[in-house]
Amino acid sequence: MSVLGHVASTRKAALYVIKIGSASLDHEEVFDEVAGLRARGARLLLVAGGAAGIARHYADIGRLVRTMRLGGGEVRYCPPAEIPHIVAAYEQVTLPRVRHALSERGLRVFTAVAQTGALVSALANPPVRAEIDGRMCVVRDHRAGTVCAVDVDCVNQLLEVFDVVCLAPPVSDATGGTALNVDADVLAAELANALDADHLRLVTGTAGLLADPADPASGIQHAIRGEGQAYARGRMRQKVRAAEIALTGTADVAITGPHILSPASGTRFWRAPAPAGDLSLLARTVEISSVSYDERELAEFLVDWCTEHGIHAEIDEVGNLVATRGSGPERVLMLGHLDTVAHRWPVHWNGETLSGRGCVDAKGSLVAFLETLAEMDVPSHAQVRVIGAVEEENTARGACFVRDHYPADAVIIGEPSGAEALTIGYYGLLKVRLSVAEPVGHTAGQGVVTAADRMVHVLSRLRDAIADTSPKAMMAVLGIHAVNAGHLQQGEAVFDVRVPQETPVENLVALVRQVGEAVGVEVLRATPGVLTPRTNALVKAFSRAFREAGTTPRFLAKKGSSDMNTLAATWQDVPMVAYGPGDAALDHTPGERLDATEFRKARAVLATAVTSWVNERERTTP
After folding, report:
1. Cα separation values, 547 from 332, 541, 542, 552, 619, Å
2. Is 91 one of the catalytic residues?
3. Which InterPro entries does the record associate with it (predicted)?
């Protein structure tokens, strides 16, 4: 099995942190959804709510659940004598329920209260003034705390070993005292922040946050930072507090329900409200984490948006978002991609400049495509389709499926060209995995050659041979790895070649196989270079759009590659260009940002160009 994959990275599979309220633990559907997420490859950290389990356990042992009134609400009173009983309730009632439900679904499950091995630690809260048994007093022995530390390494190791890890309060006292109770929703939020989770779901018995708690149909779909508490009552206050804590991290955050994980019927929380209404979809699309192989949440969100705007939209069998208007014979395809490279930071606006992973590469382009589609009056002779492809940054799986299933007469690829330029060509791409195994020998021996030695030698020969054959080709080793494995040392490397348009990519494939004969060669991707003539009707449509916007057309031929290359591998004589807002120099960098003026201008140019192409086809169609 490959260690490096397509791109050398320490990034693990997407992490969901899911808090399931105690009432929701009685609903089988939520466990089906958890199993479904695991089947998609996600890592899963559950936090179990305990109110119902504690009540059941206390009833079984004939003990009264003690409470106190604090801040206008009733909370569980936890003096030191109660902590062992609370732990027992989780260990004997709540966690066995989770373990049994998920084990029945074929999952390996680890469950524990979070004090175990100090997986989570907290500092005790100061004394509080509260009402106990009808009397106001200063309570000094209430064992509740504020999370201060998570053993991230240990939790990550558990996530590597088990399909699902489920934790529950209480947590360890960082100063060595009796364990401390913490709110389970807040615990989930703190875990999400500490572990750099992709998604946080707080599952409850209502359809998220309700404008009117007495009306189950009054759900609030969207809440920005600071808005939620105005609608929260009772236990919902702690869920909103947890959501606000999580907004300081990078996960996308939602309170979901009743008793389901999907945010579509709950409340999404947004950390970066757009400064203007026409930037809202852009901001929200960037906030939803969609690192390669974890595009589903964003795809589902955009399907809902399309449906609300009268666009037929669906998710196809490989996970692509497919949005279509019109059914005529003249077909234009706008192909963007849902995924981003790894690494995120909290999305934010600085005035009208958006900062966040993917805003340039290439969610800005995809949003411009969708908004153009929503506003277009598509004539009867045309079909306009927008696809958000999966895995563009790795395997091009989404684009390969598009190539084989969604034919078109013109293609616009969603990649940053800048609002005032059009990309008409790309270098091709050849990506190969090289593998080698050599007998282990003592390196003090004369003439010993390790797997790493042989790999370095082959890589050097490849560079020289490709440079001789195609001097303009650009080469990079994306990753190299070698380890001892018993009597053999095994090594692999991922080698990337950017192929000029004048060099047939199949020639380089043959060359790599020839030079790499001493090692294993696996071709991961081999797509040709592509160049669309400036005289093509699609390019001319953009030229007219640029001039209408007061811009002199600029045309780019990039040395990178895109999904255009994947389509060009089999689509002959189909004009293709790439267009989208943003500076491509910011792709894959921590400085990724997109200005609203740039985005708006690109949207205007795109709408004019697509409309121009469609109208021109009507005039020229027999």
Report:
1. 22, 10, 9, 6, 21
2. no
3. AceGlu_kinase-like_sf, ArgE/DapE_CS, Asp/Glu/Uridylate_kinase, Glu/AcGlu_kinase, LysK, Peptidase_M20, Peptidase_M20A
